[in-house]
Each structure stands twice: as structure tokens, then as C-alpha cells.
């Protein structure tokens, strides 16, 4: 049975409270986020995510922050430490953690951030994005990956991917903008019936006001995004920084430095500009779906 995401936003009240207090202490110390990042030898993005309650605050990081902010009050330090421990314990209650046996750490981190994102922009070179996959398509991809061996592991991964799709519906749905290489429509995953159903699902989902799908045809030639898929996650909080998850031959990597993120934002802008319009893209998807029906 599909697991429902009963905790759609893992940025708990406690995490927010801790982040707010750390922001206040940083500002009281007269430090910018850049200066705080230098003190912790991390990125500005990490400081932003801590202060917005979007990530767990490890106790060593908390200690380093309090030292950088010159917080000497032992009672305050103890209270913030207790708050961090409690917030981290609550955060581990996210629905995806029950599937820890079939999820890599990077994927769990991605789901947690996806649950909080307001917008996702993605380029996909070979596969339909996970948020738009049908159950049969997910299952075929999972079996082909050979990463999960047993039927139970495969089914759990399918459930995770389908549970993620709840972010596209509800009171505050995620805004998804996907640019798909034409290869995504031509690469058969499963049998022709699976592909037909998948392409028809793309058509139906593209009608949602919070979903934009564009196809980048082969005829547009070489382009900067052809070297691999990536996802840019955007957040609605003031001063929140975008984060990128990029795939490479050895796995997935997080990118959060402003220059790196800006590079992928430019890549996506170039891809969507080169791609067919959403209306033209639907016509192409519809034509490919009919080919599988024949």
C-alpha cells in the first residue's frame, strides 16, 4: 500500500525555532552569511538552509557556530543544544525514513529537500522525471537498474517514487518545469503499452497549472545540457538559495556554491529557450503516444 506523506514539510517548528535563534545570534555578532560560512568552512548555502530550518544541525556545527558568534552563556548553549537534538529526532520521522533500506543517503537528502521546495526545474536526457513517472514505468526502470534485487525492494522503491508525486497536488503544490530531450520519448522503457501509458500521463500532467513540460528536439543540435541530467531546487523562503543535484557517471552530487548553481540556472534557461513551446511539446508527445498505440 502506498505510504502517504503525513509530514509534507520536514522543516519542523523546532527546526525553524533553532534556525531563527541562530540567525539572531549571527546578526547580533555582526556577521554576514558569507562570514559565518567562512568561520565554519562551509558554503553560504548551508548557513541559509540551517537558518531556514531546512537541514538538521549537527552538534559539531552548532558548537562551531556558537563559537564564531561568541556565545558564552552556558545556559543558552545548553538550551540550543537540547533544541537541536530534539529537532533532529523529529526530522528523522519523515515518511521516507521508513524506506531507508532501499534509499541511498543522497536520495533521502533529495526527498527531504524536495518536500520543502517551492519550485523544481529539471533537464532530463534519457528518462522521464521521477515526479512524472507512472507506476509501470517506475517498476521497469527499477528492474533495469539492477540496484535492487528482490521483489520487495523493488516494490518499496516504487512506493517511494509514487509517494513523492504527492508534491504535485494539494493546497500548496510544487511547481515543476521539466525540459525533456526528445530521446526521453523514444527510449522504450517496459513494453509499448507501458510507454503509451507513460506518454499519455505526461500529456495529462502537463495540463496542470503547476506543471510545465517542454521537449528539446534532436533537430536543435548540440546543446550545453546534453552532458547529463540535473535538478535545480528552489525555495520560497526569503534569502533561501537554490540547490542543484547533478548526475555524473559515478553517481549524483550536490552543488550549492552560488557560482555553480548560477551555471546550472543558465544551462536550464538555455535549454528551455531552445526547446519547443509547451503547446508544441504536447503535440510531439501526443504523436509519439499514438505510435506506441499502433
TrEMBL record:
Coiled coil (residue ranges): none
PROSITE patterns attached to this UniProt entry: HTH_CROC1
All copies of domain HTH cro/C1-type, residue ranges: 22-76
Gene3D superfamilies named in the record: lambda repressor-like DNA-binding domains (1.10.260.40)
SMART domains registered for this protein in UniProt: HTH_XRE
Superkingdom of this protein's organism: Bacteria
An MF annotation (GO) of this entry: DNA binding
Short name of any one Pfam family annotated for the protein: HTH_31
Protein name per Swiss-Prot or TrEMBL: Transcriptional regulator
UniProt organism field: Streptomyces albiflavescens
Highest classification ranks of the organism: Bacteria, Bacillati, Actinomycetota, Actinomycetes, Kitasatosporales
